[in-house]
């Protein structure tokens, strides 16, 4: 019985992981080619004067929302568990450099999912 449960669990994690890779890939395409451009156009229509910094904020907020959705999906499927400590303080900091001892793409996704206007374009490895 235990062996059957392990096989079912393995199969579930394999399918769910594949689904998340597909979701991340398609989400990136949708975000880059449809969602962010549409959000910028809508913001431009609402306000007659569009500043470059506002476009950047719109793009950052769209990325934040999609990464929040993605992390919630991974957590809901049981693929990942995470707990954030001290992010309230990090939200208040300006011009902060985040250094990770083993950065991966998922680290970046998790960090940006908690910071609505994270201007980081990458992470530094030590």
Automatic annotation (TrEMBL):
Transmembrane segments: 12-40, 61-85
Alphabetic keyword roster: Membrane, Transmembrane, Transmembrane helix
Domain of life: Bacteria
SUPFAM superfamilies given in the database record: Glycerol-3-phosphate (1)-acyltransferase
Keyword presence, Membrane: yes
Protein name in the entry: 1-acyl-sn-glycerol-3-phosphate acyltransferase
Naturally occurring in which organism (per UniProt): Cysteiniphilum litorale
């Amino acid at each position: 019985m235990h062996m059957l449960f392990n096989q079912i669990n393995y199969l579930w994690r394999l399918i769910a992981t594949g689904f998340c890779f597909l979701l991340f890939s398609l989400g990136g395409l949708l975000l880059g080619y449809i969602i962010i451009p549409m959000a910028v156009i809508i913001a431009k229509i609402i306000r007659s004067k569009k500043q470059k910094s506002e476009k950047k904020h719109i793009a950052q907020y769209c990325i934040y929302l999609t990464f929040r959705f993605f992390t919630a999906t991974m957590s809901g499927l049981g693929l990942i568990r995470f707990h954030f400590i001290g992010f309230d303080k990090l939200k208040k900091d300006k011009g902060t450099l985040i250094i990770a001892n083993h950065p991966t793409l998922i680290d970046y996704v998790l960090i940006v999912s908690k910071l609505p206007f994270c201007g980081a374009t990458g992470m530094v490895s030590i």
